[in-house]
Specification:
Chain lengths: 350, 111
C-alpha cells in the first residue's frame, strides 16, 4: 500500500490534465475508439441527465487510509475539507432538491470535524435514503470514532463500506496491513447494532472493487461468495454487495501504467463495452458536489477537474432545472462505467 | 508475421476464427459459452477446472484467460495453485501408470 497521496509525492499524475492527456492519446489515437465514438455508434451521445435522484457530497479528501486503487487520491496528507459555509449551502439545496438519496463520501467523510453536525442537520430534512460511505477502519482508527455505529443508528444512516475481499491477504494488500481485522471488527459492531441483519431496516451494504488490473465478475455470484465466506468465517451479515469497476484515473491509473497493464486494461474495458449500461450510468441521475462546492457529473469527473457543462457550476448558484438541462462531460475513463454489467457507486447498472 | 509463435494480442482476436468458417466457429463459441454457464457445477468451479486443464494442455492463451477469470471471480492464488497441482498430478499419474505397461512388457520379454 502507498503511504502518501500522489499529490504529496509530487507525482505528475496528481495533475488531472496529465491524466486526461494520457486517456486521450496513445492507443486512443489509432487503435481503440474514443468513448464518444463508441457511444455515437448507438446514437447515445451526448449523455444527458434523466432526472436527479442522488446528491453526492464529498466532505473532503482526507482519509485514514491510502488505498492503492483510490480514485480520489485520498490520504492523511490531503487537507481539502468542506467548510461550514459550504455545508450550509448544501443544506439549503437538500431542503429543495428532487433527489431522494443523499450520499456522503470522501476521503473518510467522518474525518471532517463538522461531519456529525452536518448529518444531524441533513437528517432533519427527512431525505429518504441517507448514505454514508464509511471505510470501516475509521471506526477503529481512533477512540473518538468508536461510537460511530451508535451515531449511525441514531440517525438511521445507510452505511456503505468497502471490502476488497473476504480473505485477509487480499484485503490487506489493497488497503494496508491490519485493514482486514479492523474491518471485520467494525462489521461485527455494526451487526450488533442491527446494521446489515436479515430483515433489519438498518442498511449495511458492502462495496467490492478488484484488487488489480482485472474487471470484476458478476455482482450476484460475488455477493453469494462474500456472504457465504463472511458468514461462515466471522458470522457477519450484510445486505447487498455493490460491485464496482476500477476507473483508470488517479492512483489506479498510476498503478496500471507502472505495472505495464494500462493498454490491456483499456482493451478489456472497450471489449466489455455494453450499450445497455450507458442508459444507466450514474451521471444521469447524480450530481456530485466537491468539498469546495463545485458541481460535477460524478465523483470521477470531480477528480479529473471536469466541472458540469452548465451555467450553474457552483452550489452557491444551484438550480436543479438548469442543471438537468446539460450535456454530461465524458472521456475514456467513462469506459469503466459501461463495461459488462456497468458500474456505479450503487454497483452494477444493468 | 511476428517473430514469436505466441503473441498475447492474438487472444483478443480469438473470435475471428469464425471469419474463415462461420458455421463451425459459431457452433464452437455457442458450445463454449454454454459449457461455462452456471449448471450442476458453479461457474467458479468450472473456472478452476479450466485453469487446471489450461496447464495440462500448456496453452498460454488459456492460462492468461483463466488466471484473469479466476481473479475476477475472487478465486485465491492458493486455490489456483491447488487446481494446477490437481492437473499436474493427473498428468504425471497418466505418465506413470504407463509404467505398468512397461513392467508387463519387460516381464514378458525377459526370464
Ligand atoms: S478508504 Fe476510500 S477514500 Fe480512503 S484511501 Fe481508501 S479508497 Fe480512498
Ligand atoms: S465516469 Fe462519470 S461521466 Fe463518465 S460515464 Fe461514469 S458516471 Fe458518467
Amino acid at each position: 500500500m502507498a503511504t502518501k497521496s500522489l499529490k504529496k509525492q509530487k507525482n505528475k499524475l496528481a495533475d488531472a490534465n496529465r491524466q486526461l492527456e494520457i486517456l486521450s492519446s496513445g492507443i486512443f489515437e489509432d487503435e481503440l475508439p474514443t468513448f464518444k465514438d463508441k457511444v455515437s455508434q448507438t446514437h447515445q451521445f451526448p449523455l444527458r441527465p434523466k432526472g436527479l435522484e442522488i446528491l453526492q457530497i464529498n466532505l473532503g479528501y482526507m482519509c485514514n487510509q491510502v488505498c492503492e486503487h483510490c480514485h480520489v487520491d485520498a490520504g492523511p496528507d490531503r487537507k481539502e475539507i468542506m467548510t461550514k459555509e459550504t455545508m450550509q449551502q448544501c443544506l439549503e439545496v437538500i431542503q429543495t432538491t428532487g433527489a431522494h438519496t443523499l450520499d456522503l463520501t470522501g476521503g473518510a467523510p467522518e474525518m471532517n470535524p463538522l461531519f456529525r453536525w452536518f448529518v444531524e442537520e441533513a437528517s432533519k430534512v427527512g431525505i429518504k435514503d441517507f448514505i454514508v460511505r464509511s471505510n470501516l477502519t475509521i471506526i477503529r482508527a481512533n477512540k473518538k470514532y468508536h461510537d460511530l455505529p451508535d451515531f449511525f443508528k441514531q440517525y438511521n444512516v445507510h452505511v456503505v463500506s468497502s471490502m476488497p475481499h473476504w480473505t485477509r491477504r487480499k484485503t490487506d494488500k489493497q488497503r494496508g496491513v491490519g485493514v482486514f481485522d479492523k474491518s471485520i471488527k467494525a462489521l461485527q459492531e455494526l451487526n450488533e447494532r442491527g446494521f446489515g441483519m436479515p430483515s433489519s431496516d438498518l442498511r449495511l451494504d458492502l462495496v467490492y472493487n478488484p484488487s488489480g488490473a482485472f474487471l470484476p465478475s458478476d455482482q450476484a455470484s460475488m455477493e453469494r461468495d462474500f456472504k457465504k465466506a463472511l458468514l461462515e468465517d466471522f458470522n457477519i451479515h450484510f445486505h447487498s454487495l455493490f460491485v464496482i469497476t476500477n476507473l483508470p484515473i488517479s492512483r489506479f491509473l498510476d498503478y496500471l501504467i507502472a505495472s505495464d497493464n494500462y493498454e490491456d486494461y483499456m482493451y478489456n474495458l472497450v471489449d466489455a463495452y455494453n450499450p445497455a449500461a450507458v442508459e444507466n450510468v450514474m451521471c444521469r441521475n447524480t450530481i456530485s458536489i466537491s468539498w469546495d462546492g463545485w458541481l460535477y457529473d460524478c465523483d470521477f469527473n470531480q477528480m479529473l477537474g471536469l466541472k458540469v457543462a452548465s451555467k450553474v457550476k457552483h452550489i452557491s448558484d444551484y438550480n436543479e432545472e438548469v442543471l438537468n438541462d446539460r450535456n454530461i462531460i465524458t472521456s475514456q475513463h467513462c469506459y469503466g462505467c459501461t463495461a459488462g454489467a456497468g458500474s456505479s457507486c450503487q454497483g452494477s447498472v444493468t | 508475421m511476428s517473430k514469436t509463435y505466441y503473441d498475447p494480442a492474438d487472444l483478443r482476436n480469438f473470435g475471428k476464427i469464425t471469419d474463415w468458417s462461420e458455421e463451425l466457429g459459431e457452433k464452437f463459441f455457442d458450445y463454449y459459452g454454454k459449457v461455462f454457464e452456471e449448471g450442476a457445477l458453479t461457474a467458479r468451479e468450472k473456472s478452476l477446472i479450466a485453469l487446471a486443464v489450461s496447464h495440462v494442455v500448456k496453452c498460454p492463451y488459456c492460462i492468461d484467460a483463466y488466471t484473469q477469470d479466476g481473479l475476477k471471480r475472487g478465486i485465491t492464488k492458493e486455490e489456483m495453485m491447488e487446481a494446477v497441482h490437481a492437473g499436474a498430478a493427473i498428468e504425471s499419474g497418466a505418465t506413470l501408470v504407463h509404467g505398468v505397461q512397461m513392467m508387463k512388457k519387460y516381464d514378458k520379454l525377459s526370464h
